[in-house]
Amino acid sequence: MSKILLIEDEAAIRRVLKRIIADENNTYNVEEAEDGVIGLEIIKENDFDLILCDIKMPKMDGVEVLQKIKEMKPEIPVIMISGHGDLDTAVQTMRMGAYDYISKPPDLNRLLNTVRNALDQKQLIVENKQLKKKVSKKYEMIGDSKPIQHIKNMIDKVATTDARVLITGPNGTGKELVAHRLHNLSERSKAPMIEVNCAAIPSELIESELFGHVKGSFTGANKDRAGKFEAANAGTIFLDEIGDMSLSAQAKVLRALQESKISRVGSDKDIKVDVRVLAATNKDLRKEIAEGRFREDLYHRLAVILIQVPSLNDRREDIPVLINHFAAIIAKEQGMALKNFSEEAIVKLQDYNWTGNIRELRNVVERLLILGEKEISATDVDLFASK
User: In this structure, is residue 140 part of a structural domain?
Assistant: First the structure.
């Protein structure tokens, strides 16, 4: 049942509004407050899905009440109730974050529609928060080893800036987790993070993928198409495996970084973009530069901050917590009972040479959960974890 608070100093209007809303479909629980001061005290102690607040009230007017609500619990939608002479103020409250306003005397249909729409918006906000929590959990960095703590500390310092970050490390170490954490902790987190796997896109298509194209610019270009840089506007673009990008595409990326402009393939029209660029590679870009496969000027543009992600062999103390983390996720995904790993099994797994890093560890944990006994033993590891 949705909880609604009605803040209104005129008792007669309170009764009318409460009756209209509460009688709508018996799914609204409406509480009352006779002025803004009382209303704020109630809000401090309770959670509401929606607040209706009069503008002209004694002790504290609705504008101040709205301001304090937005400071305390900004996720709650607030509908302002305005008298005939309060319309300019009502518009002002909309700029301050009010969901909408209704005039006295209220029109029945408009009131109920506004309440329904505000509650729907609140539900969307809740669902989006839950989804973001799931996404952030998916990209959680697991471990407390010194290398991981160092990376987390660097991310905390860098995330709130717009500094470009180059993330390096072997395959399977979790470079994309670093990129997601940087984005999720940044001021751009409400905007999209667009990922581009530069190694997975043919060299002849990478420019179109990144910058878009206009109709007829090449065979198969049947209509205008925006690229990844435009899709990431106001947010973040993550260029994974950037060491595999063609030199011609590198030149265009360099221009985008220098001028904050891109142009679609086949067009000479500039498009302004506001994008933070994160890049990752498993290659030694210094060596790539020396051999003429990577632009040195682009490297210096990308590597404002360098984050080196360690191999799993360099953070073996994190293996027990990683095993438990993956086991819980895999058991849930596969719909199987969660199995315990014996101490001997964990010690054996810590002694492995993890050439495939965390990705390989996850695969081994899954294999052991499927093929191992009720408790994963050292014998199970010997039988099923060999490479």
Answer: no
Please tell me the total count of domains within the chain.
3
**Whose structure tokens read 């049942």?**
1
How many helices and strands in the chain, by DSSP H and E? 16, 14
* Mean pLDDT, residues 280-300 taken together: 97
For residue 31, give its domain range.
2-135
Q: Is residue 196 part of a domain?
A: yes
Please tell me the distance from the alpha carbon of residue 261 to that of residue 255, in angstroms, as a whole number.
7
Residue 327 lies in a domain: yes
pTM above 0.90, yes or no: no
For 95-116, give the DSSP string.
Answer: HTT--EEEESSPPHHHHHHHHH
26 pLDDT above the threshold of 90: no
H-only helix segments in 189-339: 206-211, 228-231, 247-259, 285-290, 296-302, 319-334
Domain boundary among 310, 336, 362: 310
* Boundary of a domain, candidates 310, 336, 358: 310
User: CB–CB of 329/366 below 8 Å?
Assistant: no
pLDDT (0 to 100) of residue 377: 95
Give the count of beta carbons closer than 10 Å to the beta carbon of residue 128: 11
